[in-house]
Specification:
By secondary structure, the chain is mostly helical. It has 6 helices and no strands.
Length: 110
Amino acid sequence: MKGDRLYLIHIAECIDKIETYAGSLDYDGFVAQTIVQDAVLRKLQVLAESTQRLSDDFKAGHPEIEWYKIAGLRNILVHDYLGIDPETVWVVVADKLADLKSAAQKGLQE
């Protein structure tokens, strides 16, 4: 898991930036600010790429994270960017990042 450290740092930093960009917004505010959407999408892309590089051991130790969904999100962000739905992105930002942030922080403390 020593090799995971760099990727865990990237994940934690991306989540921190997403929280900075969108943390004070509600859904309507997020949808209204395309610059924020673009910034969040970029950080989600980097975050998702970093999760794909984590070791299988780390992922197995954190079954609460839906790793396959993160990989699917990455594929959409990279290959199907015209099909990105702001509501889906908002759900990820508002409801899904907390568990991943917790896992990354825990991994960095190990």
